[in-house]
């Protein structure tokens, strides 16, 4: 049984994510990446905004590599020092990344900022999601603040065992427009 409070729920899910076997995450990531690439939302997007994964997150590198090989604009997030916000910057490859905030790979300072989100698909990390689009991240609110003014399509990617009927959320939590697992693509907003 999962805890009901948001903080306790997040701790429980984080523990489960950390204990997910590497082979299982790799297989899930492969299928999830393929489902994102095959989605109409990806095919219609001019710009891909995408996180660079940490060890417990879905491996988005195949999506990034595919978008770059197809000549799409690709931007990844950088946390802004001293603020609880992030901005996206265009990259041309992994050589444009360096270790930044929280040990996450981020764009180097010479990368141009992405400010036009029309036609953009934003692939976002999540610890877990609810079938109603609720997305639980790591608790810092970076993506919720970004999505408040985004206007494109947000796509949360998670292994299927982290998709629940409902999860605890607050009014400031902005739901994802779509959720992609190994076996499902759930569309929650009219695209």
Question: Which terms summarize this structure?
Answer:
Rossmann fold; single chain; 27% helix; 5 helices; 191 residues; alpha/beta; 7-stranded mixed sheet
Note down, in words, how this protein is organized.
The chain is α/β, with parallel strands linked by helices. It has a single domain, classed as Rossmann fold (3-Layer(aba) Sandwich). 27% of the residues lie in helices and 24% in strands. It has helices at residues 6-19, 22-38, 40-44, 61-69, 142-147, and strands at residues 47-50, 73-79, 86-91, 97-99, 105-107, 120-124, 128-130, 135-136, 153-157, 163-164, 178-180, 185-187. Helix 2 (22-38) runs parallel beside helix 4. The N and C termini lie far apart (35 Å).
Shape: globular
CATH architecture tag:
3-Layer(aba) Sandwich
Helix percentage: 25-40%
Radius of gyration, taken over Cα atoms and rounded to an integer in Å:
16 Å
CATH topology: Rossmann fold
Domain count, please report it: 1
Instruction: Give the termini separation.
Output: 35 Å
Q: Spell the H/E element sequence.
A: HHHEHEEEEEEEHEEEE
Low-confidence stretches: none
Question: Spatial order of the strands in the main sheet?
Answer: 3-2-1-6-9-11-12
The largest pleated sheet is described as:
7 strands, mixed
- Report the average pLDDT across residues: 93
The chain-level structural class is alpha/beta
Give the total of beta strands. 12
In terms of DSSP E residues, the strand content is 15-25%
Give the CATH superfamily.
NagB/RpiA/CoA transferase-like
